[in-house]
TrEMBL record:
<protein>
    <recommendedName>
        <fullName>DUF1836 domain-containing protein</fullName>
    </recommendedName>
</protein>
<dbReference type="Pfam" id="PF08876">
    <property type="entry name" value="DUF1836"/>
</dbReference>
<dbReference type="InterPro" id="IPR014975">
    <property type="entry name" value="DUF1836"/>
</dbReference>
Length: 190
């Protein structure tokens, strides 16, 4: 479906902070904000992607291990990136529960490599992106079949409405699955 291909091209699906984008030296908050704005800001938008308040709230909610001397390490930036990606679907409390084990392992200097975990996240992101494009195409084809018999000026509107509802439905299904995994993590910790 041509419209789905146009949609895929118009939404910036490959925006992410790569490991090589994160400096190996500690950053002040303004530099962290600038890093996120440079990667995720929408063109011609004054909307901030990341703010001081957001980062302070993440720290207060203990989504991040403690910051020292007002500087953010590479590990902090990786955690902030994970939070950024999770916050669109999960509550702050669910994000805290999800990242709690990782924060604890970092604090305990465990043999855990947050770089390796983040690399796996980025790799899975790429795989999910390809799957997403295929699923979008399939949804477009399914909607086209549903509206074949409609032959009036509202066809385009109905097509877009059904695509929106289909996309939101899939989003909700994935969100529910993620929330179930978070609940399983909480139960296991008890």
């Amino acid at each position: 479906m041509k419209k789905i291909n146009e949609l895929i091209e118009q939404i910036d699906l490959d925006k992410k902070i790569l490991l090589e984008d994160i400096p190996n030296l500690d950053l002040y908050m303004d530099q962290v904000i600038q890093l996120f704005d440079n990667k995720f800001a929408k063109p011609n938008s004054n909307e901030k992607v990341m703010t001081k308040t957001m980062i302070n709230n993440y720290a207060k909610a203990k989504l991040l291990f403690p910051i020292k001397n007002k500087k953010y390490t590479k590990n902090h930036i990786i955690l902030i990136s994970l939070i950024y990606h999770l916050k669109g679907a999960l509550s702050i409390n669910d994000i805290k529960e999800s990242l709690n084990g990782l924060n604890q392992r970092i604090l305990e200097n465990n043999e855990i490599s947050i770089d390796d975990i983040y690399s796996s996240f980025l790799h899975l992101n790429e795989l999910d992106l390809e799957k997403f494009k295929t699923e979008l195409q399939q949804s477009g084809e399914n909607v086209s079949k549903e509206i074949e018999q409609i032959d009036d000026e509202s066809k385009e509107y109905i097509e877009k409405l059904l695509l929106i509802t289909s996309f939101v439905n899939m989003s909700n299904l994935y969100k529910n699955a993620a929330e179930k995994l978070v609940m399983d993590m909480i139960e296991k910790q008890k």
